[in-house]
Write a structure and sequence with these properties.
The protein has 253 residues and is an all-alpha fold. 78% of the residues lie in helices and 0% in strands. It has 2 domains: 148 residues, no CATH class; 105 residues, no CATH class. α1 packs parallel to α4. The relative contact order is 0.11.
Length: 253
């Protein structure tokens, strides 16, 4: 199968870089956890702290990694060679999507869990004050849900928002040949600024400054507003997937 051959070829070409990256990241994470625990005198460290470290690492790294999609497009010669591989456009697109987004979400959580528990077990032997030396994703999730009520449409909106950030930079990488990460940031910032300016200007024209809770114009409850937001983000995500798809098709033409 051509798709599996493409995956195998990429693994052979990049296996050294992959192992160095995973190994180096594990060592850095090990010492980062140690210093953070030491800053709290070990005894104040909790499972929720582990979860916080994971969130601060997982989300920025996911954005960075998705922004590095389609690396062959950074160079004209490599781009032509990549598009001339004996695989279809669909297979190239799926390969980039799977390796840059889905594979990241599959590999990083188990890697963090292994390193966190290994670090906790090692440190526990040298400093018994570290009471919470094991990490559980389940316990961290239950604590998060209990504190912030992330259920139903709120949870769906959060997931779609996270997926949006990944797809935004994935699409930017498919569109921009030079400095895609920086240009995506700039384009998104300009879009947000323009939209915000338009809303403020519209509010002044319609004299809406004295109205509090503008969502009441359209929605009766907070949940209905969150549901509409979640659906809107999901539609935007589908649009981003379509844009990156057609951009790849345009490059191939």
């Amino acid at each position: 199968m051509r798709f599996l051959a493409l995956c195998k070829q990429s693994l052979i070409l990049n296996k050294r870089a992959i192992w160095i990256t995973l190994g180096g990241s594990s060592v850095i994470l090990f010492f980062l956890l140690y210093f953070l625990q030491a800053s709290q005198q070990f005894s104040d460290w909790t499972n929720y702290d582990y979860g916080g470290v994971f969130a601060y690492i997982f989300f920025p790294l996911g954005i960075l990694f998705s922004g590095l999609s389609f690396p062959a497009f950074r160079n004209k010669e490599k781009s032509m060679a990549y598009l001339m591989l004996p695989v279809s456009q669909t297979e190239i697109y799926l390969f980039e999507f799977l390796t840059r987004i889905l594979l990241f979400m599959v590999i990083i959580p188990p890697l963090f869990w292994v390193v966190a528990n290994l670090e906790g077990a090692v440190v526990k032997n040298f400093d018994p004050k570290l009471a919470q030396y094991s990490f559980s994703f389940g316990e961290a999730w239950l604590t998060l849900v209990g504190h912030h009520h992330f259920t139903g449409w709120t949870l769906f909106a959060m997931m779609q928002g996270w997926f949006f950030t990944l797809l935004l930079f994935f699409t930017g990488a498919s569109h921009f040949s030079r400095m895609p990460f920086q240009k995506t940031w700039f384009s998104f910032g300009a879009l947000v600024f323009g939209y915000t300016y338009f809303i403020v200007l519209l509010g002044k024209i319609l004299d809406l400054q004295g109205i509090v809770g503008i969502r009441l114009f359209f929605f009766k409850t907070d949940q209905s507003a969150i549901a509409a937001l979640a659906i809107a983000i999901a539609v935007i995500n589908l649009c981003l997937l379509a844009i990156s798809w057609f951009r790849l098709k345009e490059k191939e033409a």
